[in-house]
Specification:
Length: 198
């Protein structure tokens, strides 16, 4: 194998190692017995929702779509209904790709070719692969299904996912659809178990 091929492979390896896939979604559900499988349902904001904003409608619409797909009939918020699905969501940011001193992590590649065709180590090249690292966006969706008649909670669940800031997976619309689908598909799910949805 020629020295050029070895050097090319050494340079390509760190770049390939940086390719990542979107993290999966973590889902936890709770219910008692066999909760409702159909009926009218209104999707409303959970009291005390920590992230009250215009984004709420995005999450509420994604949740309503999933309830419809499993047999419930969504109605407008505040309308008479058999059930109410209370929705809460929050988004947070945490640093990514920094070492303990707060500097970006870089990959070093070293190599050198001497006179007479001898090769050896000694020349170091530092490559910053990403510039300033992007933050990780963590998004959590929580849903409670309550009977309208007595406000009893018959089912509830929580789903969390992460994505790099600036990617499509970190956008509210994409995150809302992903979380709602992971949480409500397979309803009611195994109570008390935390599972990973890819």
């Amino acid at each position: 194998m020629s020295k050029r091929l070895i050097l090319a492979a050494a340079l390509a390896f760190p770049l390939a190692a940086c390719t990542t896939t979107a993290p999966p979604t973590e889902v936890t559900r709770f219910h008692v017995g066999n909760p409702a499988r159909s009926g009218t349902i209104a999707v409303e904001e959970m009291p005390g929702n920590p992230d009250i904003s215009l984004e709420f409608r995005t999450y509420a619409d994604a949740v309503a779509q999933q309830w419809r797909q499993i047999g419930f009939t969504p109605v407008a918020a505040g309308s008479p209904s058999d059930y109410v699905a209370l929705v809460s969501f929050r988004r947070g940011f945490r640093p990514s790709g920094v070492d303990r001193s707060g500097r970006p992590v870089s990959v070093g590649v070293g190599g050198g070719i001497g006179s007479g065709g001898y090769s050896g180590l000694g020349l170091g090249i530092g490559i910053n692969l990403s510039g300033k690292p992007k933050d990780i966006v963590t998004t959590e969706l929580q849903v409670q299904l309550r009977r309208r008649a007595d406000s009893a909670t018959v089912w509830e669940g929580r789903a969390t996912t992460e994505a790099k800031q600036g990617t499509s997976a970190a956008q509210p619309a994409m995150a809302a659809q992903k979380l709602a689908a992971a949480l409500i598909q397979g309803y009611p799910g195994e109570s008390g178990r935390t599972m990973i949805v890819k």
